[in-house]
Every structure is written in C-alpha cells, then in structure tokens.
Amino acid sequence: STTARGGVVRRFPADFLWGSATAAFQIEGAAWEDGRADSIWDAFARVPGAVVGGDDGSVATDHYHRYAADVELMAELGLGAYRFSTSWARICPDGGAPNRAGLDFYSRLVDALLEAGITPWLTLYHWDLPQTLEEQGGWTNRDVAQLFVDYALATHEALGDRVRHWTTLNEPWCSAFLGYAGGQHAPGRRDDSAALAALHHLLLAHGLGITALRERDADASLGITLNHSHFWPADPDSAADLDAVRRMDALQNRLFLDPIFRGSYPADALVDLADVWPDVVRDGDLATIAAPIDVLGVNYYTASVVTADGVRGGVSLGDVPSDVEDGGSGDAAAHTVRSPWVGARDVRVVDTAAARTAMDWEVHPDALRDLLVRIDTEYARPAGTALVVTENGAAYDDEPDSDGLVDDVERRDYVAAHLAAVHEAIQTGADVRGYFLWSLLDNFEWAFGYSKRFGIVRVDYDTLRRTPKGSALWYSSVARSGELGVDGAR
Ligand code: GBH
C-alpha cells in the first residue's frame, strides 16, 4: 500500500493544526441573496460549454443557509481549524462600498466556529472577482489591486477582532494562467500578455493587502496560498527535457516564490516570456510584493514527468478532457480552451505507472515532501515564514451503498500517504505547522461543475444532505490523536 512507510506510527507536533478547507463560490450558493452581486464565476458559468453540464453556483451546497450545521459537523469530526474564503461580490457587490448583510454572514460563521472551538483561517480571494470589476478589465487593470485593499480592510474591520489568520490570495497561478491564458477558468480569456499583467496585479494586490493589514493589525498572522508542483525530466540526460523542467518550475513555482520572498521575478522566466511580457511593472512594485509574510500556504495535488523532446510524445499539458472542452453540450460554438502554459506549450506530460485520481492527476506523495523541504530551505526559513499545507486531497468516483454511505478507501489512502510525506518533511526539519484537507464537502469543482467530488463529506445534490464518508471518520481519528498509524490506520 502507498501508506506503509517504515512501519512506524507517525506522531505530529502537539500544536499541529488539523483542518479542512472550502471556498465561498464552491459551497455557498445564495448567489444573489442579501445584496450579493455576480462574480466572474456566475458570469462564466453562463457561457455555453464553459462548465461541465452547464452547472453553476446558484445553490452549490447551500452552505450560506446551512453553515451552522456544517460547523457542527466539523466540531463532531474534531477538526481544530477551518479554512474558508469570503466572497468579494458578497462583501463589496460592485467592487466598491461594503454590504453590511454580506459581512454579517461571515460574522455569524466566525462566531459559530469560535463557539465550537474551531480556529478560522480566512482567505480573501478564492477566484470570485465582482463581475463589475471584470467589466473594467479585471486583473489586467492595475486599479483592481487597490480595490482589493479596500475590500480587505472592510473585511478586517468587521472580522479582525475574531479572525487572526488572514490569507490574501488563493493560487494566483490559476487566476492568471487558467483565467487569462488558457481560458479554463473565469473570465475565460486567452491572451498571454493579459495573463502576465493579471499575474503582476494579483501579486501587487497581495503585497498592498499585506502592507495595509499589517498596519492595522500588527499581531495578525498574514500570508498567501500558492499552488505548487514538482516536475521530473522524462530523460535526465536530455537537455530538452531538463529545460522543460526548468521552464515548468519557473511558471508554476518560482514566478511566485521569487517575487514574494526575494523581490524579483526569476531572470530565466523573464527571458522565456520576453515576447509577451507586458509593461506593467512600476518602480517599487516588487518591494511591495515582497512584504514579509508569516505563513506561506502550500496547495499540492500532483506532480508530473515532462518532456520537450518531440520524439517522446506524451500528452499536452493543460489539456482538459474533451467532455470539458465543449462542456458536454456538443455545442459547436462552445467555449474553447488551450494550454495555460505560456512559454511552455511545447512541453508534454509523460504518463507514469503512478495511480491516478478521478481528475486524472497522478498520485506522487513524495513530491509533497520534497517541495516542502525545498520551499522551507530556499525561501521560507530564511524569511522567518512558516509553512502550512492549505490544500491537499483528491477526487474519486465515490459509490454510495444503499444507505448512502461511502467507503472511500482510495481517498483515505491518498490523504494518509500525503500526511506521511508532510511528517517526513517535518522530520527533515521543515517548519510545517498544519494541514487543511481539501475538501470538507463535495462542491462546485470549477470547470468540472458538480461532476467531481473532493469532499470527505458527501453532499446529495437533490436533498443537500451531508453524510460523512469513511475518509472523514478516519481523518477525524487522526486529527484527534495527532497520530498516523502504520498503513494509514488509526
Ligand atoms: C485547487 O486548485 C483549488 O484551490 C480548489 O478550489 C479546487 O477545488 C481544488 O484545488 C481541486 O481542484 O492539468 O497541467 O493544469 C487546484 C489547482 C491546477 C492543481 C491544475 C492541478 C493540474 C495540472 N490545480 N493542476 S494541469
């Protein structure tokens, strides 16, 4: 089994955080209630073929109305922390003035969490930009970075007395490259220069946000969450394959880590992207982006063997299954997508024998250990920044029995193997403080709609009933004991 690692019981540090994660658009529903306006994901879901099955976020898991029960469920599972995001379009519906009713929802949620003894970890931006701001150019417009600060401060003013852990952005790689270069995500654009402008303005929003929050609240723990991956060369003796690894690593990891921790974009990436790099970087921006952070959130799902050697072939990176490409609608005029890998569209993924999840992502737990150790050593530790795994988890084709119960052994094994990897990273000396399992609930999996289930709790989309899966009960005992048993057992 993937979880048998040395036949030992792994004990995590006593203060290690055990949590689960969600995001506003993926679970809340109540899309136009209490003053919430369209976000770019509401608009994108209306584009024919953009989302599998034409699914949208209007109801989602109805968490907006069921938050109290969901908090109770987390408490029953013994989870000590909860990572959620606030919806910009609920708090500042037109991108400007704050909406009291929107803030009140999060205030109720935070109170319920604290009452249940669960520590709130709040992310300000998990991809749901107010649609009015998209109409002003979205993240290609520098002004949006400043509007993000206004939104962050309005949210902090309402919740800062109770929320002590603040994350600016979730995975700006996805916002910039899937949103503006590949078109898989909202706003669905396919313009490489726009993607790089978005990337810079997202990082600027992060830096300005950290600076403003720090000024208001010197003791808060502040950070950002990035999605990282690891790449191996198909042939370690091939210069082309090694260069493919270098370019992929730059796009996925260093394009974010370098400006945040070192105040500069990686020189090799600037050379690779010279033809499409927009003129958006102003004096002082990189110093702003490099504002010190307390926590780096690491999201990790998969790793890949890559090649840029035409002979070896492989699958084009960023390709999505054909049922996503036309949204399963068979509509010829449907939304189309292309590889999000600007400057690396020639790079191909080579399949390995590794197991795969329902997303078709290969399972490589050791890459998480190596990434955590690398990021800790090269970036975070020298800056005095702690690491937290803010997302890790897997979609599988769950099969409920006649009572609606799901015995998701594969998901349990996936999480156990990755927790073992986190434990190994800690033993190697990496400063990893916690783990948030993605996700608490089955939810709206972006372009895949409700067709992919990441939850440790099953959601019946007809009744909206929640039923903990086997993985939830197992994770609960790991979280309560702080121990991972042999073979992932407890
Ligand atoms: C996260 O993104 C999100 O934060 C979360 O909202 C989401 O529900 C969850 O993960 C599950 O998807 O095929 O070459 O593009 C994950 C970001 C980007 C990770 C694409 C895997 C696959 C490599 N993902 N990546 S490629």
UniProtKB/TrEMBL annotation:
GO terms for molecular function: beta-glucosidase activity. Pfam families: Glyco_hydro_1. GO terms for biological process: carbohydrate catabolic process. The keyword S-adenosyl-L-methionine does not apply. InterPro entries: GH (IPR017853), GH_1_N_CS (IPR033132), Glyco_hydro_1 (IPR001360), Glyco_hydro_1_AS (IPR018120). Keywords: Glycosidase, Hydrolase. The keyword Transit peptide does not apply. GO terms for cellular component: cytosol. Its EC number is 3.2.1.21. The active site is at 391 (nucleophile). It is an enzyme of class 3 (hydrolase). Belongs to the glycosyl hydrolase 1 family. This is beta-glucosidase. It comes from Beutenbergia cavernae (strain ATCC BAA-8 / DSM 12333 / CCUG 43141 / JCM 11478 / NBRC 16432 / NCIMB 13614 / HKI 0122).
